[in-house]
Amino acid sequence: MTDSQAESTDLITVYINNKGYRVPEDVTIMQAYEYAGYQFTRGCGCRGGVCGACSVVYRIPGNEKIETGLACQTLVQPEMCLTQIPFFPENKATYDIDQLEPTTEQILELYPELSKCMGCNTCTKSCPMDIDVMECVSEILRGNIEKVADRSISCIMCKLCASRCPAGLTPDYYFLLCRRLYGRHIMKPLVNVPRRISEIESGEYEAELDRLMTLDPEDLRQIYRETQLDKQEYDGTHKDQKEMWNENH
Ligand code: FES
User: Fold this and answer.
1) Dist CA 87 CA 94 (whole Å)
2) Cα(122) to centroid of ligand 1, in Å?
3) How far apart are alpha carbons 147 and 150 in whole angstroms?
4) Does 85 contact ligand 1 (Cβ within 6 A)?
5) How far is it, in rounded angstroms, from Cα 183 to Cα 193?
6) 57: left (phi over 0), alpha (psi -120 to 50) or beta
């Protein structure tokens, strides 16, 4: 059974681009599109809520609000009237990250409209990743670039916040800039990565890799099960990545 086929036989009516279709009641909007005969040549990528390609807006009868979501993650509802947003024009600055300062002033120079946030919070309400978008915009103005980089890490750049902002802000690009500034200018250099790269480049693991290549899959699985990480997880002593990172810095 493919994505576009339904397990349920109960059909409901939805309106895609204002045209009515009978589709199974338990499918996602993306599956409903395909059930109705549409083929995606854009507006579809991962089908798993990660790539941000499938933004949709819709209305439910009786609710005056425009709702937003990801077509691959949002289930259809009876009488839903919907359309996809295949592209949304945004103000996108170009820059050389090496030449930038990690400051609010620098970000405002590239995106001056940022200070025009009206505080309506529509951006946060439209975010399918539950990012507190308006709060992150405020944090940029307060100079907390590291906090924004951390809190916006799950942004998939679906453009829904930008499409709903009455002030024309493009938060996804501000957050991307913050994460770049953080990675390039604020975060301390990692200790372990360069060391491991130089070990690999010096050929330290060649013999072991050659040996692993000769093993059958079950032997490889057994080795994996016996790794220290596995044992730590089994013992409940596994450290999360952030904890390990903090210890290394
Ligand atoms: S197709 Fe990638 S988020 Fe929906």
Assistant:
1) 19
2) 21
3) 5
4) no
5) 14
6) beta
Q: Among the atoms of ligand 1, which is closest to the Cα of residue 44?
A: 1
Least confident segment among 103-112, 159-168, 220-229: 220-229
44 lines ligand 1 (CB under 6 A): yes
Residue 182 and residue 198 share a domain: no
Residues 111 and 171 in one domain: yes
Task: Specify if 230 maps to a domain.
Answer: yes
Give the domain range for residue 101.
97-186
On whether both 54 and 77 belong to a single domain, the answer is yes
Closest ligand 1 atom to Cα of 51: 2
**What is the whole-number distance in angstroms between the Cα of residue 53 and the centre of ligand 1?**
5
The answer to whether the CB of 60 falls within 8 A of the CB of 80 is yes
Nearest CA to ligand 1 atom 3: 49
Distance of CA 78 to CAs 11, 20, 40, 61, Å?
9, 11, 23, 9
* pLDDT beyond 80 at 2: no
With 0.85 as the threshold, say if the pTM is over it.
no
Contact 169, 162 (CB under 8 A): yes
Q: What sign has the CA pseudo-torsion 85, 86, 89, 93?
A: positive
Q: What is the CATH number of the domain that holds 78?
A: 3.10.20.740
Q: Classify residue 48: in a domain, yes or no.
A: yes
Q: Do 164 and 105 reside in the same domain of the chain?
A: yes
CA of 30 to the centre of ligand 1 (A): 9
Best mutation site among 51, 56, 172 for ligand 1, i.e. most ligand atoms within 8 A of its Cβ?
51
